């Protein structure tokens, strides 16, 4: 029996569960903590293990849902912009074209490990997903084996075995950051040195992939005028129940039955995006996909289980039947979606799975080796014959025209007084394309800072006379470190100037049929002479005939020797460039950022005696 809430599709932002509540929600928080304690106590009283597991699963899901609701309701409305989840689909004429690009654009890189007994394999996907976004369509990828240079085939195993004496293929130990990476592990023999080059090398990776493409995607554009209205397109309908400052409540439905191909597949067909008054997309904070009626039903089921002394087959059948009947009555689906910002307009999109195309393919991918730096004079080909666009490039390149005021506006100041002998003030700003072109020739100039006491009204008072060793300024890292042991009085304010750096960038657009000397295009590969175009001063972006930026697959620097400077750089693109945009740093300016910081109070009892 599966009596738990479908929280996997609720889109709850788990990060929120780790943050604190606002004072206004303190009573709700206390009530929730009391409820949690009572529930845990009631669990301890259940003797039957099966009943205990079922009560724990459903009750825990209800508490998690309530906690998520509390966190979402109490989260301050602070604007945070996000990316267009649908951007990749908008580049392709049909959902199936996106599926084909996803499958055909996949390849595998071989990477060196820090150990001679390990070789890492990195599957490279054509699309980059940022949490919590993911590939739009239901999909699965299963690795099966790796073929070595000696023709031996090593089967995939879900985890590395310490007792297996042979060569193994298993998920990488760096799973947390690269969950798709794999490792070929060679047997370790105590006292015997192994030459990596003598080991049979991985040549190809075998697996299978399955992707389900919907019949179509349809989007409804909604505003506050649409509250209470039902919008329909053929078999798809959306009703906007509520639209407030930072959340929307939506009911949606597909009146056509699901395609047989997806009848047993968990689906989340709803995609909700919002824009604020600037027209920019604001990021999602999380969502709750259970109505009050659904939650009440699950609470009734939980209460019924808690009244039992033991788990039984009749009880399981009864609960299953009740749940099936209840779900049949839920003709429409519900979602309450929260955003990090003030909503002006909504874009509610539904994937229509009333018809579906299932693409299955056996994979036998050659394993490629592209080191970031190489002494090879020849250029390896890497044309995957798919077109993938870089939807973040246009936003990123706005940093090429960053002004002094924009740079200053993006500065944030943080403090740390955990260690009073090394208290810190840190100046940071949102990283932009401007930072990428700063180079290394910095001239920070003077970075004066003075510390002040405060008067009885909390205002800035007299400056504090300090020895030079009482504080240190690192202008390149934007930090001020000060030792309160050396302060004759407690400082309350820091006043001064911190340097920021601004590149002057010149941008040009060149037709790839008329490239200047030092630039050469070979199919999907741009070759750059680094003597004419030094890497720290130049960046290159490619577009095709659609006017969209092509995504770069990877780049390699070629040099005459491992110690010498790189001679030329090679940039590989998904697609055929027809226009090239060049960005050259022509100057570097120091911008002084004046500040007055009210200092956080340190725990003076922790000062050195």
From TrEMBL:
Highest taxon, organism lineage: Bacteria
Coiled coil: 288-332
Keywords: Coiled coil
Keyword Coiled coil: yes
Record-given protein name: Lipoprotein
The species this protein was found in: Pseudomonas laurylsulfativorans
């Amino acid at each position: 029996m599966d009596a738990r809430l479908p929280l996997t599709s609720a889109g709850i932002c788990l990060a929120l569960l780790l943050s604190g509540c606002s004072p206004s929600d303190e009573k709700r928080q206390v009530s929730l903590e009391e409820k949690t304690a009572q529930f845990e106590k009631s669990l301890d009283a259940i003797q039957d293990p099966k009943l205990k597991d079922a009560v724990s699963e459903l009750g825990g899901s209800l508490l998690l849902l309530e906690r998520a609701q509390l966190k979402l309701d109490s989260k301050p409305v602070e604007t945070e912009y996000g990316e267009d989840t649908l951007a990749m689909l908008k580049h392709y004429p049909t959902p199936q074209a996106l599926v084909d690009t996803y499958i055909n654009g996949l390849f595998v890189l071989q990477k060196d490990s820090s150990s001679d007994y390990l070789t890492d394999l990195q599957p490279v996907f054509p699309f980059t997903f940022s949490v919590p976004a993911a590939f739009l369509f239901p999909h699965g990828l299963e690795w099966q084996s790796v073929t070595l240079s000696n023709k031996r085939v090593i089967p995939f195993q879900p985890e590395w075995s310490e007792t297996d004496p042979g060569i193994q293929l298993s998920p990488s130990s760096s799973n947390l950051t690269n969950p798709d990476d794999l490792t070929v592990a060679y047997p370790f023999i105590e006292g015997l040195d192994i030459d990596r080059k003598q080991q049979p090398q991985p040549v190809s990776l075998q697996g299978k992939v399955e992707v389900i493409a919907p019949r179509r995607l349809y989007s409804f554009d909604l505003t506050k005028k649409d509250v209470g209205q039902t919008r329909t397109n053929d078999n798809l309908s959306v009703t906007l129940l509520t639209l407030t400052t930072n959340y929307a409540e939506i009911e949606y439905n597909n009146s056509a039955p699901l395609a047989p191909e997806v009848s047993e597949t968990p689906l989340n067909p709803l995609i909700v995006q919002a824009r604020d008054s600037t027209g920019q997309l604001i990021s999602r904070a999380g969502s709750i996909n259970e109505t009050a009626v659904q939650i009440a039903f699950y609470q009734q089921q939980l209460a019924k289980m808690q009244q039992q002394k033991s788990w039984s087959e009749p009880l399981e059948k009864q609960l299953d039947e009740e749940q099936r009947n209840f779900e049949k009555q839920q003709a429409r689906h519900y979602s309450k979606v929260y955003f990090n910002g003030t909503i002006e307009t909504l874009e509610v999109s539904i994937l229509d799975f009333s018809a579906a195309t299932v693409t299955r393919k056996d994979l036998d991918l050659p394993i490629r080796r592209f080191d970031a730096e190489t002494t090879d004079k020849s250029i390896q080909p890497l044309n995957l014959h798919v077109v993938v666009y870089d939807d973040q490039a246009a936003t990123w390149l706005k940093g090429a025209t960053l002004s002094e005021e924009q740079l200053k506006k993006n500065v944030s100041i943080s403090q740390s007084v955990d260690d009073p002998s090394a208290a810190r003030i840190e100046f940071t700003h949102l990283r932009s394309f401007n930072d990428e072109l700063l180079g290394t020739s910095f001239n920070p100039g003077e970075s004066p800072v003075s510390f002040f006491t405060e008067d009885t009204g909390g205002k800035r008072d007299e400056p504090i006379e300090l020895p030079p060793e009482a504080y240190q300024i690192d202008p390149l890292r934007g930090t001020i470190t000060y030792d309160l042991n050396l302060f004759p009085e407690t400082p309350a304010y820091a006043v001064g100037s911190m340097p920021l750096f601004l590149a002057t960038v010149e941008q040009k657009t060149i037709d790839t049929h008329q490239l200047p000397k030092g630039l050469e295009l070979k199919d999907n590969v741009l070759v750059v002479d680094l003597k004419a175009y030094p890497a720290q001063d130049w960046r290159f972006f490619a577009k095709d005939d659609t006017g969209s930026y092509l995504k770069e697959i990877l780049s390699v620097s070629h040099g005459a020797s491992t110690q010498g400077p790189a001679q030329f750089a090679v940039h590989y693109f998904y697609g055929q460039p027809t226009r090239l945009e060049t960005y050259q740093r022509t100057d570097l300016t120091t911008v002084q950022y004046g500040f007055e910081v009210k200092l956080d109070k340190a725990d003076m009892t922790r000062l050195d005696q």
